[in-house]
Please model this.
Amino acid sequence: KIEDIKDALLLCNRILVHSPSDLNRLKNIGLVENVSLFPHGILDSERYSLKKSYRKENKDELHFSSYGFCLPNKGFPQLIQAIALLHKQHFKCKLFLYTSLYDSDTSLQFYYQLLELINELNLNTLVDINPNFLSDELTLNKLSKTDLVIFPYQSTNESVSGAVRQGLASLTKVAVTPLPIFDDVSDVVYKLPGSTPALIAAGLIEWSKNQYGKTMTDQEKKWLKEHSFEKLANRLSRLIKSIE
Model:
């Protein structure tokens, strides 16, 4: 528990946290004066040659994607089941899962479970799963060639998500489940109504009706720029100099 190292943390010049809830958590154990809020960074998409234009075999078909380590809490089974529900409703779509294997037996077993689920639901032509660890540039380019990047998390103890920032950096619209881990990106994402397959499917239908085709707003572009690693590096440098 973090309170067990409170005395050590009191010796730090600064403790950087990503969210207001983290601030409050530390405040509750008496850590206040040396704690600062510092955002999680986002890759600067201008540094990568993103090719947003691509051809679909079926222009009426939406291409969804998801990204993150192949772990149970990411919600990939629920997303796959949501695709099955959409298919039954004659909603034309495909899903591309970029979920690299984590260094654990659990991750590998979960990957095989996903393959089995895809087979059971007869979605082999609609769901493509890539378990390879891809470079940032390749990841962003692949995500940029889809219509919506979905993060269907079910539960997590993490304060913020690093994976969702890859989706945002791809300049593709992003949808998330209504969990606190996504609170810090709430201004630039579409929030799904829930985490179950049925609610994810309903949210995707709603998004396709009201959000599909909309371009990124100036406010969203500004948010991405302000959270770029370059901007945050300058901010961190100023913070260090102020302490010195």
